Amino acid sequence: MVRSGVTNWSLRVAGERLRIKLRRTVSLRLACRAVVMRNKEPLVSFTFDDFPCSALLEGGSILETYSLRGTFFASLGLMGTTAPTGAIFGVSDLHKLIQKEHEIGCHTFNHYNAWETAPSEFQASIVQNREALDRYLPGAFFRNFSYPISCPRPRTKRMMSKYFDCCRGGGQTLNAGSLDLNFLKAFFLEKSSGDFDSIARLIERNSRERGWLIFATHDVSKRPTKFGCTPQFFEQVVRCAISSGATILTVCGALEKVRGKPSHASASELALDRRASGAKPAP
Ligand SMILES: [Zn+2]
Questions:
Q1: Ligand 1 center–CA 6 separation, angstroms
Q2: CATH (residue range 31-276)
Q3: Which member of 23, 24, 40, 267 has the lowest number of beta carbons within 10 Å of its beta carbon?
């Protein structure tokens, strides 16, 4: 009886793993926007999903210490709430992010699962997030995106080029040679289980292959959730990336290098330009 229960459970786990693997294969192979990478130097970016207050307070501050900037993917529908990744940013954090010249990216308004959500609903949530951002940071807009929770359905992935210069997923690896603008690969720090050596090896490989290594995480705190990391660990990775000689840029900044041509001003730059030109601050 017990043995049969265990067998059923094992079969369910194996089935679920296979389902996720198939989704991932379909997602990666279809609806691609392929680009040959033209960057002359290895690139590294630091990104934060959701973004919990601690990501900006701790992670952002560490980057600023080294005169670096990060990309923060926001779901404005989560603003002021407590999510599994911790206490989520408030309006004042949005202003702080812009003041500190970090970059803001879209993560849908509702933090919708990229595979489970119907493409039309997913699209409506992207538009809703854009409208909400314009209310809080007039003139600012999202140039890039990260898929919440899961890889996207091909139909969802296909429509992203209408809204964003590039979209980030996961995959625990770097981008090299060519990349898919509809699915940039990224490495989630929390999935390393604190194994710094494997990260150091990946940074080294990124230098050798002149790639673009995009790190991702959620909260950065002394007692992180299972989706985050500690400030010490985060800083160790930042220092390793710096000493590798890679150029460390926001997602928009790195994309310019990848394309080998300048792209438009980032949302942060636009908001700053607007402030400098005397536009009223958001309520
Ligand atoms: Zn998320």
A1: 32
A2: 3.20.20.370
A3: 40
